[in-house]
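Lab notebook, bench 4. The sequencing result for the construct came back, and we need a structural model before the next group meeting so we can plan mutations. Quick request posted to the team channel:

Model the 3D structure of this chain.
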Amino acid sequence: MNKPILKSGPVTTGAADFFARSRARLGFDVPPGLFDPNIIPASGDPGTDKMLEIIAREQPVRPAAVLIAVVDRPEPTILLTQRSAHLNDHAGQIAFPGGKIDATDSSPLDAALREAEEEVGLSRDFVEPIGYLDLYGTGFGFRILPTVAKVRPGFALTINHSEVDDAFEVPLSFLMNPANHQLHSKEFRGMERFYYAMPFVERYIWGATAGMLRVLYERIYSS
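Done. Here's the predicted structure in token form:
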């Protein structure tokens, strides 16, 4: 299946409006499902929900955190990375800065900021955290808690090529336009499940990254 989702029209994505909506809708309460395998993150897709139930029974939960870094430019953007081709998990895919939550991290927020510094050299001095998005589960057992943050322009990135090959920005207006949210399907153990893709120029944004961007759109603009 290959089609765009057109549940709503394009939204106004000015920086001030986006950050105001985000502050009103997000907070820093950590959902218990981040660590509890018995709490399955809801995806809104029955096939995916069933897959996550099966994965939770078969694999240990892998708590992770990512940073949805919204750069406060005249036309706001979101910072994304392309993972290194040699990695074992999700090699070459488009992702947010982030990774697993370590025991030394004081919070999922701290993990997201640490990973952003390690992967692309984004200094915490430029980052203003706003709140957590909904918990997102994947077929690899990851429970991902995204931190939405406002990023002040003027930062300089240093790419850690052992983890990522590139970092780039995509206009928020493109990512928050539901006309760009393609819905695809694939089979998991005889069940059909759906996932999103948001191709942008030569960048193929799909899977968990596109799924979290769709959740961001629904949480900030759909209500």
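Residues 121 and 158 are 5 Å apart (CA to CA).
Will bring this to the meeting.
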